[in-house]
Amino acid sequence: MQGIWLILDSIIAVLALVLGFILHKWISERKLGDASNRAERLIQDAERDAANRLKSADLEVKEAALQARTVAEAEARQRENKIQQIEQRVLTKDDELTRKLDQL
């Protein structure tokens, strides 16, 4: 009878070891899968964030270029207006001088 119990205990011990090994392997694979999924999500989030930052930077550059162009155009218009005013004054002076010469 003791031999049967010894064999039964040995079988139970072997089954427990096998079950423990299988359970350990399953838990390890599950943890690895979870870590892999988490890493994949982090990579996707980082890629999305990088794309958004790139779009934002591109938009900022375009806005800055547009603002610089607007300022340059406004300055060019101001210079053109000043030139026209100076031309008008020169023409007025020329007319005055011509009239004075005619009077002499």
List keywords for this structure.
104 residues; mainly alpha; 1 helix; 98% helix
Short description:
With 104 residues, the chain is an all-alpha fold. The protein is built from one helix and no strands.
Walk me through this protein's architecture:
The chain starts with a helix and ends with a helix. The protein contains one helix and no strands. 98% of the residues lie in helices and 0% in strands. The chain has a domain at 45-104. It has 104 residues and is an all-alpha fold.
Number of helices: 1
Give the % helix. Answer: over 70%
Integer average pLDDT: 93
Task: Provide the structure class.
Answer: mainly alpha
Structural topology:
Layout lengths: L1 H102 L1
